[in-house]
Amino acid sequence: xxxxxxxxxxxxxxxxxxxxxxxxxxxxxxxxxxxxxxxxxxxxxxxxxxxxxxxxxxxxxxxxxxxxxxxxxxxxxxxxxxxxxxxxxxxxxxxxxxxxxxxxxxxxxxxxxxxxxxxxxxxxxxxxxxxxxxxxxxxxxxxxxxxxxxxxxxxxxxxxxxxxxxxxxxxxxxxxxxxxxxxxxxxxxxxxxxxxxxxxxxxxxxxxxxxxxxxxxxxxxxxxxxxxxxxxxxxxxxxxxxxxxxxxxxxxxxxxxxxxxxxxxxxxxxxxxxxxxxxxxxxxxxxxxxxxxxxxxxxxxxxxxxxxxxxxxxxxxxxxxxxxxxxxxxxxxxxxxxxxxxxxxxxxxxxxxxxxxxxxxxxxxxxxxxxxxxxxxxxxxxxxxxxxxxxxxxxxxxxxxxxxxxxxxxxxxxxxxxxxxxxxxxxxxxxxxxxxxxxxxxxxxxxxxxx
Length: 451
Prior knowledge:
- The chain is of the alpha/beta class.
- It is 42% helix and 19% strand.
- The protein contains 14 helices and 16 strands.
- It has an eight-stranded mixed beta sheet. Strands 12-13-11-14-16-15 form a six-stranded antiparallel beta sheet. Strands 5-6 form a two-stranded antiparallel ribbon.
């Protein structure tokens, strides 16, 4: 059971989490208790990142003040949830951990630099603090619980800020450190998003990585179901911030969910599905504010229905056009081109090719200048920022050829930069100006989901 930042935002939210976990235990008395994975409290990670940024600029006092504010917030929540006679140890631990982090941030500010390793140490505090509080809140309400340090369980490489888990080592640690606690009838409470190298250096999986953590632990324990508790009723047919009345998608396939998550569906982290697919474990998305709502079930087979499943969009995209007459009738050109993106660890989303040009989309512009500089040694390069990807997803695209035509026709008055249909034929991808996203999403939604 993974609970996101809004689900553990304050004492009231954590009380809801307690009730949800209690009901899970009482409803399934013969099953091993759930493993609970929590994100940092809402907005905490953002504030920790800001503290690191200020330290990197040499503004130590402002960075430390942010940490003090965060400590005060966590102390307030902890005091509201845990009785005074049993909260002293928790409060002392929170003070000690924030004091250690404060010393680290002061030293980083003095140096005027925050390397990736230190960044991970700073932002890990959010999950460490929230998971400690949730574990104590459970215990105070007679739910047998134990806090488990995720850094001792989730083993990763040393690619700080975007570490890659070592599944074999992590599963071995999970069986050693988590499984016995479940066998003893205890709820293991862990922070998501964080892990450590084999040498014990703190790492993070990147933003949204708490979903991934939960799926990894679930796969290692071979659980019957992975639950992602958030602040919406499940996977919706479109982003509610763009389309005013999206529909709930009651069930979809792993492959459909992967496409939607990768192309911007915020309710699910793109990597979450991978461990579940490998172990064929259903993933259920639920609303912690409306725990009785059915939510969305993601399974291998999905469901049979007419039409499409959902829409997604990814904004802030850049289109990179690479043109060279050397492409014509030449082998090896594409390998050379994509080796540049690999060298700078920048993935591409959409790829289209012609006789003498290749166009790709990139959603992380951090290394684009370096990429362009290297590409220009053998090709002409043009970068077009402020673009977006709109993705239409559905298993039925493989069997109903009319759906493609309907999707393109519904956007006939919107300039389309690129159009792509993947080999799986589960999605149609449109690349267009970011300014046209709302119009495109609403027209597609009206075409396929109205009525």
